[in-house]
């Protein structure tokens, strides 16, 4: 694998990415380090989801910019981060490294360059086109093995502090490696930007260098005359913009079939939390490396020192400096374990909250809290990092919900319904509340109803009816924070016994979320496709909609615009189960050849079960109208609708009347 190193800060991010695009466009199996003080790590995570598809990688190397405070950059506008290249031996482990400035685009495959034998060489470079006695420091092929052995960094840093440097880091490289730089072909650092000076100053050597290169392999936009300025006189401006415009999917597709499903939010097996009052945290970096599938959420009441900030270079770390109330509450609520491993004063108020939630706490001898009476407190010797890591893996594994319940995802469920013309019964948290003996806002507990619901779930698929459960038993990270929190802290613990009973049946289920294909999803990019599949169910068909008095499904939107005709039966908005016989009789009288859609809460489940003798396809579709309204408005949270019932706004307060003659004409019966 070819190793390439870039350096820069967030202000130069678009240039860094353009350089990387040009590298990958011509080269596979590349490992690219970006030495930086402040680039958000999410950018690296996102980019790696593309690069990993062609065997390449980008690595976040954080440095404390204060380390370079004393260097002399020589020119206004040149930041000290440019000197980070001289730290390569301390930061990069590979033996052969190609360093590139970030005002560069690579215009060719670099295999030939990387095949150069560096055994007895220190560094290779290209002559500076304007000062041929020097080598330009923007492209350097480095024998990093030799640099590391020689402790060269201290000499480079000392030279960098010289207040008389003529040309910043370039002077440092040339003077420290005087007579030790091997010459590369001019095409490996084609230095654009000197043309104007060469023309007006009659710099013949510069012109000769430029004219000699017919096919530049690495194009270096030197001087302040950059192609990304508003205007520039530099040649090959269009070349830089060519690479800048490239989409990552397009670059990846050059080598293999681009897999869009790989572009997603990272997921973890568990969440670890730590609130520290000091930057010094015992063995934290080793634990982060040993537990890549555990996300470390590290918080402080104050801004953070670089000792903590540098941890953002790991995929499984999030930092929360100056954490505020709601965020703190959320992190505590979602924590699977807590680390009590910070030196100095403890956040006793946080530890007390953690203990009340019975969250396991892990600590080392040196940093443990004293006189803490808590059975779920686990202390390890200071050198038992591996043992702690294994114990954490086991703890998270043990705490994870395991109900052996198989639920097909939304795509699979919708495909089954479309292909086999299946009827559908969907169970959500409300039905589980009733089964457990509770009431819900729109249905008072009824033991007969509860038993019917339980029996249907345990029986599983029957005739041509798909029984559905929430698709939350794997990959909970697919959903919004509030959804994950609800299932993790409420649904799972409250229904543990019954969920275990379901798991013992060996049944498989469809996804309840076929009627919730938008608001709870973290990634909403597929929601339009889910709604398209749903609309295929009733496309060109006659419908019989059975719904509550204020549900008004499809009123004011185009959810059912592709149907042939619609009839509606209006049932009670609350306690519809007490009228189930009348509702079922009215359905039988009007079923005809219609697709029957039920939006009637728990009662709908029993109706589908009771009407199995009908030849109609009957689908319990629940809150589909609210979801569709939110989807159409691009909502990011649950918005109350003005003129109809809204999912999760269970008390139906202040709902306006509607004056829709089409809707009124569709109503063929009411059960009061």
UniProtKB/TrEMBL annotation:
The residues the entry assigns to the signal sequence are: none
Q: Which Pfam families match?
A: Glyco_transf_8, GT-D
List the InterPro entries hit by this protein, alphabetically. Answer: Glyco_trans_8, Glycosyltrans_8_dom-fam, GT-D, Nucleotide-diphossugar_trans
Keywords (alphabetical) are:
Glycosyltransferase, Metal-binding, Transferase
Record-annotated Glycosyltransferase GT-D fold domain positions: 424-649
Which Gene3D superfamilies did the record assign?
A: Spore Coat Polysaccharide Biosynthesis Protein SpsA, Chain A (3.90.550.10)
Q: State what protein this is by name.
A: Glycosyltransferase
Q: Which organism is it from?
A: Lactobacillus taiwanensis
User: Mind giving the lineage of the organism this protein is from?
Assistant: Bacteria, Bacillati, Bacillota, Bacilli, Lactobacillales
């Amino acid at each position: 694998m070819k190793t390439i190193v870039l350096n820069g800060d967030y202000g130069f991010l678009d240039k860094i990415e353009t350089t990387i695009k040009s590298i990958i466009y011509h080269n596979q199996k590349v490992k690219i380090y970006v030495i930086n003080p402040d680039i958000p790590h999410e950018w690296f995570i996102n980019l790696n989801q593309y690069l990993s598809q062609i065997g390449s990688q980008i690595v976040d190397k954080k440095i404390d910019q204060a380390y370079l405070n004393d260097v002399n950059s020589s020119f206004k506008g040149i930041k000290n981060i440019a000197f980070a290249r001289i730290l390569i031996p301390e930061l990069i482990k590979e033996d052969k490294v190609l360093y590139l400035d970030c005002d560069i685009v690579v215009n060719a495959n670099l295999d030939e360059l990387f095949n150069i034998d560096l055994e007895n060489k220190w560094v290779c470079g290209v002559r500076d086109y304007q000062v041929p006695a020097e080598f330009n420091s923007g492209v350097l092929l480095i024998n990093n093995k030799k640099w590391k052995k020689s402790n060269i960094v201290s000499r480079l840093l000392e030279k960098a502090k010289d207040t008389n440097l003529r040309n910043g880091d370039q002077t440092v490289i040339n003077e420290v490696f005087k007579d030790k730089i091997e010459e590369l072909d001019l095409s490996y650092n084609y230095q654009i930007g000197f043309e104007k000076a060469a023309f007006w100053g009659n710099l013949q050597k510069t012109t000769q260098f430029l004219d000699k290169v017919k096919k530049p392999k690495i194009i270096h936009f030197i001087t302040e005359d950059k192609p990304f300025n508003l205007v520039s006189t530099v040649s090959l401006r269009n070349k830089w913009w060519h690479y800048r415009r490239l989409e990552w999917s397009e670059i990846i597709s050059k080598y293999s079939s681009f897999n869009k499903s790989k572009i997603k939010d990272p997921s973890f097996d568990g969440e670890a939390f730590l609130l520290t009052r000091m930057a010094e945290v015992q063995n934290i970096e080793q634990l982060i490396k040993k537990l890549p599938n555990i996300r470390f959420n590290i918080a402080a009441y104050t801004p953070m020192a670089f000792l903590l900030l540098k941890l953002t270079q790991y995929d499984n770390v999030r930092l929360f400096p100056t954490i505020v109330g709601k965020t703190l509450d959320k992190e505590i609520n979602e924590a699977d374990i807590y680390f009590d491993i910070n030196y100095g004063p403890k956040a006793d108020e946080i530890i007390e909250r953690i203990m009340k939630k019975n969250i396991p706490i892990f600590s080392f001898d040196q940093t443990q809290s004293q006189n803490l009476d808590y059975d779920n407190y686990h202390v390890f010797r200071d050198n038992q990092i591996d043992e702690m890591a294994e114990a954490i893996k086991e703890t998270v594994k043990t705490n994870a919900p395991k109900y052996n319940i198989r639920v097909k995802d939304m795509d699979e469920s919708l495909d089954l319904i479309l292909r086999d013309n299946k009827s559908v019964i969907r169970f959500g948290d409300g039905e589980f509340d009733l089964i457990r003996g509770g009431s819900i806002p729109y249905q008072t507990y009824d033991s007969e109803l509860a038993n019917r619901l339980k029996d249907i779930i345990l029986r599983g698929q029957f005739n041509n009816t798909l029984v559905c459960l929430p698709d939350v038993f794997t990959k909970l990270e697919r959903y919004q924070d509030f959804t994950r929190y609800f299932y993790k802290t409420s649904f799972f613990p409250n229904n543990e016994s019954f969920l275990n009973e379901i798991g013992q049946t060996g049944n498989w289920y469809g996804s309840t979320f076929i009627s919730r294909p938008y608001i709870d999803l973290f990634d909403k990019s597929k929601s339009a496709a889910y709604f398209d599949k749903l609309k295929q169910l009733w496309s060109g068909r006659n419908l019989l909609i059975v719904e509550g008095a204020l549900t008004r499904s499809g009123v004011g939107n185009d959810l059912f615009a592709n149907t042939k005709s619609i009839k509606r039966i209006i049932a009670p908005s609350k306690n519809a189960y007490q009228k189930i016989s009348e509702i079922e009789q009215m359905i039988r009288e009007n079923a005809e050849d219609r697709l029957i859609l039920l939006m009637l809460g728990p009662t709908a489940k029993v109706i589908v079960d009771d009407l199995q003798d009908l030849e109609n396809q009957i689908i319990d579709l629940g809150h589909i109208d609210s979801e569709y309204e939110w989807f159409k408005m691009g909502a990011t949270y649950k918005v109350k609708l003005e003129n109809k019932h809204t999912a999760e706004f269970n008390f139906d307060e202040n709902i306006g009347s509607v004056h829709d003659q089409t809707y009124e004409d569709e109503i063929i019966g009411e059960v009061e």
